[in-house]
User: What shape does this take?
Amino acid sequence: MIASHRFRFLIDYHRYRGGVVTLQAGLHSRSGERLAVQRKEGAIVFDPPLRYCPVCAHCLVEQDVGGVLRPVCSACSFIVFLDPKVVAVVVVWHEGKFLLGKRSIEPGKGKWSFFGGYVQRGEKVEEAAMREVKEETNLDVQIEGLIGVYSERGDPHVLIVYQAGVSNDQVKTLAVQAEEVSELSFFTWEELPPFAFPVDAQILEDWKQLNS
Assistant: This one.
């Protein structure tokens, strides 16, 4: 029964707000649930109980569906498919330097990273990438190409990473958006600080190959 075996998924800590976790595939948003929380490689692992069918509200049971254990309704046979979480990330490059933000939130608080966040349902990925940079830096950047797509087995996050440039006029509007970053700074390759996430190093190497 799903009540005795809790389904695990990952969610960026900074997108978790006040006890509310929103699941995709039409599941209920459950407010105020007491959640088991663990850290896993820079992410937060929540174990929310999925108990009820979003169609008819009967109990869910765990069944094998095509070789994968999934929550299935005991009454109407509705199958719950948990969607992957698409994240748009941007490497901002200007006059020989990378623009990075020092994170003011966990995971990776106090360390530096690129800019990015979740793609909203129905949103173009490129537009999501530019929106996230605007929200964190106040800059309007120009997407210049795809660096790569990154995923790991067992992790529902799919990172789509772009490189972007910014004009000299736009750099003048650079401003810290304190909710997520505490500091913004440009770094040469030799000056790069420790990164918040392991994947950042791979992104940098792929960027270097594309621009060499």
